[in-house]
Design goal:
The protein is globular. The two termini are 24 Å apart. Strands 1, 2, 3, 4, 5, 6, 7 and 8 form an eight-stranded mixed beta sheet that branches. Helix 8 (200-215) runs antiparallel to helix 9 (219-246). It has helices at 11-21, 30-38, 57-64, 78-90, 129-139, 158-169, 179-187, 200-215, 219-246; strands at 47-51, 70-75, 97-101, 114-120, 140-153, 191-193, 197-198, 250-259. It has one domain (5-259): Rossmann fold. By secondary structure, the protein is of the alpha/beta class. The structure holds S-adenosylmethionine. S-adenosylmethionine binds at residues 1, 7, 25-27, 51-54, 57-58, 74-77, 80, 104, 120-122, 125-126.
């Protein structure tokens, strides 16, 4: 992982994403999506590492609703870590959640530290996916799982190109790979990929719902937060992503893979 300045969301991005996605989240679906992602692994009583933990929504639900023993959240961005600390304290789970800013690269944990690595909407920021999986594998205990949700490139079509170029205009540096490339990187770096779940249709519907809310009940608040230009840019961004999902340019899916026994 690299600590590229281009990987940081600006504070407007963060505000509007949380307003749309819900408290604690910078990705779609909230607590329910986390529940779907972890449904096939055991969280209760286990140590979980949440990489790219963002505003802390997943860390809170993993402890509160799924009874993780402890969640360690890492994020490259100190501002989101500060917000995550506030959320975790307000939720009364601070003793079971440790949040740390880190600059990418080697994970700051000993080998065999966790049963589960959770990572959502974050690997698409990474230049070195193989290195990320090697590190994740190293910190997992034997038989541990990596689980998450991610955006994948489905086709290099016009809808994908529009979405990708809008992200770059916003200073966000994404490295989308295909589902196949992702699974190959997993299996080449110590994991046995399990079943993949296609969430494209569901995410497309969620995005459509978010768009409607941005155009109606969230409009005034977003106008105050972002101004007219910011709101237009956010609408263009959300429509473009919807378009990429609906027109076969992007794929959103859940993944899980088990650390191979050596
Ligand atoms: C789309 S947000 C998702 C956050 C959270 N997982 C969620 O679902 O709400 C991506 C997060 O990854 C973080 N990030 C980007 N590059 C990173 C890296 N190299 N290492 C760790 N976190 C990173 C960003 O700061 C941001 O908080």
């Amino acid at each position: 992982m690299t600590d590229a300045a281009a990987n940081r969301y600006d504070s407007q991005n963060i505000k509007m994403m949380e307003l749309v996605y819900g408290k604690g989240y910078l990705s779609a679906g909230g607590d329910e999506e986390v529940a779907r992602i972890v449904s096939a692994v055991t969280i209760e009583g286990n140590d979980v590492l949440d990489i790219g933990c963002g505003l802390g929504g997943a860390a809170v639900t993993l402890v509160r609703d799924h009874r993780a023993r402890h969640v360690h959240g890492l994020d490259i961005d100190s501002r989101v870590i500060e917000r995550a600390v506030e959320l975790v304290e307000a939720a009364g789970v601070a003793e079971q959640v440790t949040l740390t800013q880190f600059g990418g690269g080697v994970l700051p944990y000993a080998d065999d530290s966790f049963e589960v690595v959770y990572v959502t909407a974050t690997t698409c920021h990474l230049e070195d996916l193989a290195g990320f999986f090697r590190e994740s594998c190293r910190v997992l205990r034997a038989g541990g799982w990596i689980v998450g949700g991610e955006w994948f490139k489905a086709a290099d079509n016009a809808a994908f190109k529009r979405w990708d170029s809008l992200l770059r205009q916003q200073g966000l540096n994404f490295h989308f790979v295909s589902r196949q490339q992702f699974e190959t990187a997993l299996s080449s770096n110590g994991f046995e990929p399990g079943s993949a779940i296609d969430r494209t249709q569901a995410t497309s519907e969620l995005t459509h719902g978010y768009l409607r809310r941005v155009e109606t009940d969230l409009r005034e608040e977003l106008l105050t937060t972002l101004g007219a230009e910011g709101l237009d840019s956010f609408l263009a961004w959300t429509r473009s992503r919807y378009d990429a999902l609906a027109n076969g340019g992007m794929y959103y899916g859940h993944f899980r893979a088990r650390k191979l026994a050596i």
